[in-house]
Every structure is written in C-alpha cells, then in structure tokens.
Amino acid sequence: MIKKLTPVIEWGTLLLSTGLVCFFLVAILWDLISKGAPSLSWAFISTSPTDGMTRGGILPAIIGTLLLTIITALVAAPFGICCAIYLNEYAADSWLTRIIRASIRNLAGVPSIIYGLFGLALFVQGLQMGTSLVAAGLTLGLLSLPYIIITTEEALRRVPNRMREAALAVGATQFESIRDVVLPSAVPGMLTGLVLTLSRAAGETAPILFTGVAFYINKPAGYLNQEFMTLPYHLYMLSTQHQAIEQVRPLAYGTALVLIILVFLLNLSAFYIRYQYSKHE
Amino acid sequence: MNNEHIKLSATDARLWFGKKQVLKNVNVAFPENKITALIGPSGCGKSTLLRCFNRMHDLSADARITGNFLLEDQDLYRGNLSATAVRRRIGMVFQQANPFPKSIYENINYGLKINDISKEERPGIIENALKESYIWDEVKDDLQKPATRLSGGQQQRLCIARAVALRPEVILMDEPCSALDPISTSKIEELILKLKQDYTIVIVTHNMQQAQRIADQTVFMYLGEIIEAGSTRQIFNDPQAELTGNYVQGHFG
Amino acid sequence: MNNEHIKLSATDARLWFGKKQVLKNVNVAFPENKITALIGPSGCGKSTLLRCFNRMHDLSADARITGNFLLEDQDLYRGNLSATAVRRRIGMVFQQANPFPKSIYENINYGLKINDISKEERPGIIENALKESYIWDEVKDDLQKPATRLSGGQQQRLCIARAVALRPEVILMDEPCSALDPISTSKIEELILKLKQDYTIVIVTHNMQQAQRIADQTVFMYLGEIIEAGSTRQIFNDPQAELTGNYVQGHFG
Amino acid sequence: DKSIKVKGSDTEVNLAVSLAENFYKVHSDFSVAISGGGSGLGIASLLNGQTDIANSSRPLNSEEIELLKAKGIAIRTVIFAEDATAFIVHRDFPLDSIDVPSLTRILNGQYKTWKPVTGQDMAVNIYGRQSNSGTHSFISKKLNIQFSRDAKEMNGSAQIVEGIKRDKSGIGYVGAGYILHGGVNQPVKVLKITSKKGIKSVSPLDTKAIAAHLYYFQRPLYQFIPITSWNKVDAFIDFEKSAAGQKIITESGYYIIPR
Amino acid sequence: MKLAIREKTDQAAKLLFRMTGLMVIAILAGIFLMLLWNTGAFFLKVKPFDFITGTQWNPSGNPANYGMLPLLVSTSLVTFGAMCIAIPLGIGTAAYLSDYAGKKLKSFLKPAIEMLASVPSVAIGFLGIVVLGPGIARMAGQSNGLNALNGAILLAVMSLPTIITVTQDALEGVPNAYKEASYSVGANRWQTLIQVTIPAAAPGILAAVMLGVGRAIGETMTVLMATGNASAFPTGFFHSVRTMTATIAIEMGEVPYQTTHYYALFAIAAVLFLMTLLVNIVGEHYVNKYRKYQAS
Ligand SMILES: Nc1ncnc2c1ncn2[C@@H]1O[C@H](COP(=O)(O)OP(=O)(O)OP(=O)(O)O)[C@@H](O)[C@H]1O
Ligand SMILES: Nc1ncnc2c1ncn2[C@@H]1O[C@H](COP(=O)(O)OP(=O)(O)OP(=O)(O)O)[C@@H](O)[C@H]1O
Ligand SMILES: [Mg+2]
Ligand SMILES: [Mg+2]
Ligand SMILES: O=P([O-])([O-])[O-]
Known about the structure:
Chains B, C: InterPro entries: AAA+_ATPase (IPR003593), ABC_transporter-like_ATP-bd (IPR003439), ABC_transporter-like_CS (IPR017871), P-loop_NTPase (IPR027417), PstB-like (IPR005670). The complex is a heteropentamer, with one copy of chain A, two copies of chain B, one copy of chain D and one copy of chain E. Chain B has helices at residues 46-53, 83-89, 104-114, 122-132, 136-139, 152-165, 182-195, 208-214, 232-237, 242-248; strands at 6-17, 20-31, 35-39, 63-71, 74-75, 90-93, 170-174, 200-204, 217-222, 225-231. By secondary structure, chain B is of the alpha/beta class. The longest helix of chain B is centred in the middle third of the chain and has 14 residues, at 152-165. The two termini of chain B are 26 Å apart. Chain D is of the alpha/beta class. In chain D, the strands form three sheets. Chain D has a five-stranded mixed beta sheet. Classes of the chains: A mainly alpha, B alpha/beta, D alpha/beta, E mainly alpha. β3 (216-217) of chain A pairs antiparallel with β2 (31-37) of chain D. Residues 46-47, 95, 174 of chain B line the site of one magnesium ion.
C-alpha cells in the first residue's frame, strides 16, 4: 500500500515545492511588471517628481542610487580586495587568521540595520559627516566589505598554487607573482563577487535610513555632503508615507520595476562575466 | 661521489612542517653537469628536499628549515642572495606542468621581462629555448596560442623551455614525466640528457627504469633521510643498504 | 570458454557517452560459478562495461547503450525486469569501498529493509553475510560502530558482505583491491575464491598476479573492444593476439 | 552653502515637499532635502545637529528644552500653519460624529469593542502612529491618556488611511492634509467631534469653525530652526509666508490663522 | 628594473596589503566594540534582566519601559513561521534540482532562484502591503493583513533562495559512491534520496537552514512594512507584531544621541547581533563539518 503510494508522494512533494517556489518568483515578477510597465516612460526616468510627488519621474532617486552604489564600490572594493589579498597571500594560516576569517563570514550575516546604527554612530555622529551621501556610502561600503573579502578570497583561493610557484620559479618576487599571475586569473571571480555585492547594496534601505536618505529633494543630483533620494527608499515612502498612497501606487509600481531592472541588470552582468569565464576555462 | 666539482649541496638539512619533521639530517651533494636522480617511496620527502633548494618553502608559513644549503659556495638562505636571486639561478620544473594561462610566447617572455632582458634579445632567446626543449617544431606556427591548450607533454616541455630560457645554473625537476605517456616521456628524457651538457640537473622520479636510463648518480631517500647515495649503477646493482635493495627491486613503495 | 552454463552475457554491446563511443561491439559471456577477470589498460572501458550489467548507467543522462545484455535468458534492459530488480539480482562491489555513513549493522540492514525482508530474518542474514565475508570476527563486538571508522580493507569486506547479504546471482567487482594493502588483498582474494561456489563473479583488476591467482577465465579489453578472452592460463601463457601478450607482460598500460 | 535639510513631522512632510518644489522654481540655487518620520525625528535631529528646520506638529516638551539648553543650541520657532487632526473610520461606519469621552475610552483601550458606542459587537482596531509622532503625543496629551497597547503603529499617516479604508471596525487619526477637502468621494469617513455632550459637533474640514478655534483637536504646526541655520533658511521661511506659500498651505488642506 | 628596486617594491606592497588588511579587520572589530560599548552604557541605566524579561516596550512612556520580550517574541514568531514554510519547500526544491531535474531545466531554474534572491527587500515588503496583505485579510476574514503571517510568508520567500542553494550544494556534494551503493542493493531513487542522500547531507542542510534563519531574523524593511508594528505582546499569526529590527528602524530616527533610549536601541542591536552570530556559528560549524566529511 505504502509502496504503491510512494511515487505519488515522491513526485507530489518534489514538484509541489519546486512549483511553489517558481510560482513565487513568477508571481512577484508578473505583478511588478504588469502593473509597473504602464508607468515606465522616458519621462519617468528622466524627470524629477512634481506636484507633491504625485506626478513626474524618479530621476533624483535613480541618480541617488547610482551615486550611492558607486561610492560603495569605491569604498569597499579597494579595501576589501587588499584585505583579501592580505589574508590569502600573505597572512600565515594561524588560529588568528582562522578567527578573522570566521568573524568576517559572521559579519556578512549581521543584519543590515546594525550597519545602519554603526554608520550613524561612526560617520554621521563621530566623524561629523552629518546625514549625507558620503556617510550613507561609507555605511553601505562597510556592509559590503565582508562580502567582497569573502568572494575575492574565494577567487584567489581558486588560483592553483602551482601558478604562484611557476612565477616564483622564473624569478618573480611575490608581489610580481600576485600582480602578473594570481590577480589576472582571479579577476573574473572577483568581478562577479563585486557586482553581486553591489547589486545587493543598491537594493538596501535599512542601513541608509538614518545616514542620509531623504523623502524628497528638489534637485536631481546632490553633492557628497548632502542628503539624497534612492529607489528603494522612494518605494518605501510611496508605499507607506505619501499622503495620497492610492493615487501614487502606479508610481510606486514604476519605481519598484525600475529598481528590479537595475538590480537584475547588475546580476545579469555578473552571470555574463561568469559565463565568459567558464568559456575560457 | 668522486672528485667532481660540487655545484649544489645541503648539509645537515632539517625541515619541519609545523611540528612534523619531514627532513632529518639530510646531507647531499649534486655534481656539476651531472644528472642526479632522487628516488624513494611516496611521502619520503623528495619534493620537500628539492623545494628547499630554490626556497619554495618561503611561501608556506609553517615550514621551518635548518642546515646549510650551498650553491657553489654561496649560502642560499643566509648570504646576500635574496630568494628571488636564488630562484633566478636555480630553475625548477614541477611535477604537474604549470604553464601560465597566457600564450606560449608570453610564458617564456614573462621570465625574461621580469629579469630585465632587453626587448631585442627576447625573441631569439625564446626561439632558442623552445628549440632546446624539442617543442619548437610543434608550436612554431602559432606562438600566440594559449599554453593551456597544449597537450600534457607539450606543456611539460614548455615549462622546461621556460626554465631553460633564463639560463639558470641548476635545474630541479620534480617527477616531470609522471603525468605523461611513453612517447612524451622519452622525448623529455632525451631533452634532459642533452641539457646536462650545460646545466646541473636534479630529478625526482618514481620510475626506476627512468632513473637507470638517465641518471649519473642516484640518491635514495626514505622517511625523510638519505639512506644511500652513489652512482646509478651501484645503487641499482650493488646497493649497500638492504632497504635500498628492497626498494629498487620493487618490493615496496 | 567451453560448454559451461552461461550466467551473464552481452552481445554486440555498444556504449556512448555523449558523442564519444566507449564500448565498441563487445561480446562477452560469464559462466556460472566461475570467476572472470576483466583486464586492460586504464580507460579501456572495463568499469563502463561492468556497470552496464547492473544498469548503473541509467543514472547518467548522457550514456546511450545498445546491444543485448542477458542474465540467464532474461534481457536486462528490455524485458520485464526493472532496473531495481536487475540490481537486486546482480550485486556490485565498487573500486573504492563505499559504505554508507551509518553503523556497520545498518549498512547491511539497509538493503534488506529496502527489499522487504522481514524484521525477524534480518539479524541472522546480517551475521551470516559478515561471516561469509570474513569480517565477522573483527566487528562482532561493536556492530553499531560507524562503518566509516573501519580500515580500508574492512570497509571493502563490509561492502562485499552488503552485496552478499542480498543473495544476488552475480557479483560484479570493480578493482576491489586497488586501494588495499597486501594483507587485506589476500584476505579478499580468499573470500572471492570461496564465494565462487555460490555466485558468478566478474572482477576488474589491474593486477596481473591477482588475475592469475584467482580467475578461471580472463578477458582482455583495449580501447573499448574485447581483444581476447579465454582461460586465464591461456591468456597469460599463450595469448593469441600480440596486444594481449604485450599487455600481460607489462610492456604498456 | 545653499543646501537645507528639513526633517520631522509626517503631518507636514507632504506640505513641505510642495513648498520646496515651488520654492525651487524661484530659488533654483537652493537644494532642499526633506524627510518625514515624525515630529520626534525632527526634534531629535535638531538636538543631534542634523537638520536646519525641524518640522513638528507639537510643541517642545520640557525635557527637550532642557536638552537644547544643555547642548547650547539656540532656536527660533516659526508657526506656519494650523492643523485639524481628523479621526477617520470606514465609510460604512454607522455614526457621523463621536463625542470626546467615548473617543477617550476607545483610544485608551477601555472599550475593546464598538458596542458601547455604535451598538455593534465588533473589536476596535486602532490605527495609530509610532511614539515619536507629534500627532500621537498631541492626542494623548489632549485626552490625557496612554494609548491602548493593541494600537497598530503605522509608519506614516498614509498607512493609517489605507488601513481604515479596508477595516470596518478601525479608527485612526491623521493630519488634515491626509484627507480630501471639499471632495465628495472621501475614501474614508471623517468623524465630526462633539467636545461636550449637547454641543454641536464640528468637522475638521470646517474652515470657519477652525478659524474660530472651535474644533477640539486643532493645533499649530511648528518649525524649529537652530539660530546657526537661520541665515540659510531665511529665504525658505519668507517663501512660506509669501502669498504663493500661503496658497500652497491652504491647498494642501491646512489652515492659516492670523495671529 | 633592477633587482634591488623590485625587491623594495615587493616589500612595500607587502606592507601596504598588511596595513589595509589589518585596518579593515580593525574596523570590522570596531562594529562589535561599538555595540558592546553602547550596550554597556544602556545596562548602566536599565538592568539586563529587566531588559530581557520586561513585557512592555514603551520608551516614550512615563515612566519609560524597556522590556524587549515582546520584540523578541515577535521576531521569533515571524522567523518560526517563515521557516515552517521555507524549510520543507527549500529542501523539496533542492532535492528536485539535485536529483531529479534534467540538465536543461536545472540550468534555467538555478539562475531564476538566484534572481529571486536579488529582489530587494523593499520590493518584497511593497508586495506584502499591496498584494499579500489584502489577500490574507480577505481569505482569513480579517480586517487587515498587516500581521505576523504576512511577514512570515514574505520572509520565507526571501530566505528560500539561500536555503535552496546551500541545500542543493550539500545534496550534490554527497559522494556518488553512496548513491551507487544504495542503487546496487536495489533501492530506487526516492528511497535513496530519503534514506541515504538526505541523511548524508544533513549537516549541510542544517547549515542551510541556519543561514536561512539568520536571514529571516535580520531582515528589516520587509517586516517594517508588512507586519503592522503593534508593540503589544503578540498572541498569534493574525496579530500585528513589531520585530527587533523594525523597532530599531522606527525609533532610531527619533532619539537624541546618547540618551537612554538611544542606548536601548543599541542593546536591541546587540541582542540581534548575538542571535545572528549564534545562528551563523552553528551554521558555519555544520558547513565545516560537512566539508571535512566530504573530503574524507
Ligand atoms: N605543506 C605541507 N604541510 C605539512 N606537511 C607536508 C606539506 N608538504 C608535504 N608534507 C608532508 O611531508 C612529507 C613529505 O612530502 P613530499 O611531498 O616531500 O613527499 P615526496 O617524497 O615528494 O612524495 P611523492 O613521491 O608522493 O611526491 C609527506 O608526509 C607530506 O605529507
Ligand atoms: N560519465 C562519463 N562521461 C564521459 N566519459 C566517460 C564517463 N565515464 C567514463 N568515461 C570515459 O570512458 C572511457 C572508459 O572509462 P572506464 O572508467 O570504463 O575505464 P576503465 O577501463 O575502468 O579504466 P580504469 O582502469 O582507469 O578504471 C574513458 O575514456 C573515460 O574517460
Ligand atoms: Mg613529490
Ligand atoms: Mg575503472
Ligand atoms: O508626524 P507627526 O506630525 O505626527 O509628528
């Protein structure tokens, strides 16, 4: 009896769960696209909001998101990569480095809101940057650091030791072997990790809540020391704070769609890098 | 070990990985323009010993080395030779071919560039090294091809060319034929025999026939110690230690 | 191959992995209660052929098989035998011992449970299988010990016990001793010789001495084809094909 | 430096956005960044030195005045509009007005159901604001209550309107800017308030009554400005007081009471 | 370049990498110290015991109450709900992908699931407000869908990709030898999956679950938007809840620096940090164990 039912249970369980997961994905995308697409237009992405944000576009939010992501990259990439190189190429494999590695992995799992608190205490308050683009960018940079370190180290680890030895054996110094042999081989992996990390950062809201994001700004582009708008926060605002929530729903859907498109584009470029890489292997 | 000129030697060498002692009081000398084979069961420390001579262990933090390692009469570790300078004079070919993931040309060019050899000289040196390593004919039509697309045997010969191009004084080879088919193997053996006119060669091998075919002198290691060293003929036909005899007759290992 | 009763056979068997043909027109027959050794250089298709007989290739999507595989006179692929039923009748012992990461007891119990053997019978069968496989004495004190803590040789014997417990008709063994020391090897050879009273055994081996010690019949494969098959004595002492002679004398492979 | 940070009251945030938007048309060299989050956020930012204008829909409390003093922050206060806080219920709600005592018992959790008020046996769902909201503290002060612990704390007034639209047993409070003025198609019902038994109930949409200070829950809207920022924000404050500014204020649903 | 210069460069580079490496590590350590410091400042004013076991969170009340139990319970409730949904679905999907799906389907599904992982949390929260919340309200006959159930479902969706990917890696990492052994004694695919593959991958699956839990505990925007944020003690899945993360997000803006309330939020963050740390360490432990076991 049980034996007879097995195939039913088997396929039932597996297909049901896989189907549900796919359903979630399709439902999310379908809802966002079908309701967001009508709002999309050139004007929507190229103008500022008007009429108390009930009309107009989301240009300041797009620019803010891009600027923020760029600052995040500028902060996190060089430091993260240098730290990963230090850990993987120079640091001895002692209990200390093992603890450091474990801590870095744990930091990657720390809730993003805690980075927001830290950014507030350190950058906004401690370093007197005020709520601003730099403070928020640095906060997101911190948030991204552990991910970049982990992915870069992973990429470095995948470069076989015999490559390093080959360079040393022809008389290269350690730095030269890293620069000429290790890094070039690791670059695709590092890039993939970097892009994925940035796509995550671009979608974050919690860490910037207190460090510089604004409800509205009357100029499309800000300066480093000013507040700014971003797509995720704009979506949050339009869906919870705006006085005419119902009326601006199409704008909220449009913002959500633009945000998703931006993040997916970043992800796709990561897939593309990975694909190019695997082709060369 | 007669009165030949000794090119490279180690006295009282010991090496630990962490707490584990891998080389115990090793004394060994490699005569100039001779081929020395290093044999012994897996894990006895052959590769480890070889790598001491071009300071490859500098990279692994947990390796600790004592003893004297001399190239001619210069100390490899304590003198005024830097690790980079040592490696420049003592080339190495690894057990697994490890060409850079670059073109064939670039593979050899890299070492020349790094070592300040002028742009004009390089093409000549590269061609010559490839010829010396019996691989020129197979690759001359497309030097821009990625080295990783070569066959295993070709890659190994390319690595030898890379080492040779720098005109080191000694070439260390760690089982260069272990991953190769018989035809590639015989090509590389031929090459090694030719190279000995200009270089001092130390080769680790698992293959008793190979040692007998090419080595002038053979050193037998066991559990981190050198059990016996002598002319190849003597080691294989008239070993002094029982252990050596057992090993070369294939009774263990 | 005289007029013995043929237990298992393949006619005109071909196998492709993707576009690559790995078995080419293989014809082979294994007589009942005999040990057949399958020899040949690495990569010639021995494992692949063996795995055809218990439909292990069903798992890999890119394997395509043609030809007839018969157990007695039942077709293994097209008849009314399911893959599960085939595997139940044709046991297999793999090159690397692969006990489940469970207790010794559970390792054998699993197959019995799966195959609906009643709870009451199982302990007896398990004890018996362990005894038959010469491992009972070494493990009887702690059948709950994780199988992964056994030595390599013990693990391999446990895997044989696991196969034997189900009383298959044929046991396929893929280099069961390749990872073992000489003492474990000789224990397993002893066991195989004993098992042949009850089972038909096919064993892949790289070890010529082993084939000569235990096999009644030997099959030599090369590049996906069967070059020669015959009594072990004949294959080793009077091979018909030049290739066979070269191989058994160790000239290549 | 021509960048102005305006933070605080949710009640005022949409108004501030409209003002900034129009201000930009005449002073395009100023950049004005506006954040909501509640009066408490504005005042905290004032204390933390993170804002040039703190919008607040409540006066400073004594503790805050102390803190400002302690930190040596001198401020100027601007009252730029009047709000009439509206109580809203579902469109199908049976009553049009409510008296203050009943409201008090509903909001402090004493009435768990609507029975004593409407006769319907439905659980009361309070849609409130989080504790940093000026409106929240204004109501609790005015009625002298602690809010029921079951009150939902919405992130903004807009979410309250959203909730009430669907919830037949809900009640919520929002600034006048969050309800439509003069519209017949109000998505929620705006309750009239009876301050004492027997007195005529007043709607928060009744301009005249508000001008006469007759609505029970009416209050001034403040802007606190640190002295150090005064020069910078001067132009913006002037714009608020200009005819154009005043027009925006009334169009946004708030009132102007000459003082 | 001359050898001497090259070696100088080498030394300089080494120094540079070491300095930046150590600096980054120091900054990351700083996050921890800052939490500790501010939490310490809080505990000078409020007893840790009262903080953990207090049942009222009302910092602006008079007197102020700093009892985080309702927040803790809310976080646990939402996380628990999310895991009840995500664990079975995640394992089922991972099993399907690793042992059943064909190559083509897999090469399509895998990036699709990674896509799901990259949908920003505000977008998920937004859908919680406009689609799922009203849906739940309608189906359950509730007046409002902003409750723990809404949050749990959304968090399940958000942690699914993590659970699926890590579980799938674990299942695929089970040596083929085990599967073959199982087939060779006559087991079918389902028996092999349930009785051999999943038990063998258990540590990896546990790690996956832990990482999923960590993700759910730490998520802020989604719960902030979708759970209604009532700070009363939660009594069920149809109750509005206010999680620890949402509390920080709501109140951080309104507190003057260096006040008790400010420190209180850091104390919540510290508890949150410890919770995720614990979960990650457990997860990490099993991931490592699993790797070792794979190696053997
Ligand atoms: N980096 C290392 N850390 C710790 N132990 C090591 C390390 N490298 C090698 N060993 C150990 O040192 C011993 C000698 O290793 P070595 O590689 O020199 O052996 P070998 O003689 O070259 O063997 P084979 O013939 O298998 O290459 C071995 O027991 C090995 O496990
Ligand atoms: N799953 C697979 N996909 C593609 N090619 C395969 C696969 N499995 C085996 N092969 C190829 O099929 C050929 C035969 O392999 P097989 O494992 O049967 O060799 P073998 O005779 O058992 O060798 P060995 O003695 O080394 O075990 C080899 O060339 C191998 O590379
Ligand atoms: Mg070696
Ligand atoms: Mg095989
Ligand atoms: O947002 P508030 O006006 O209620 O502080």
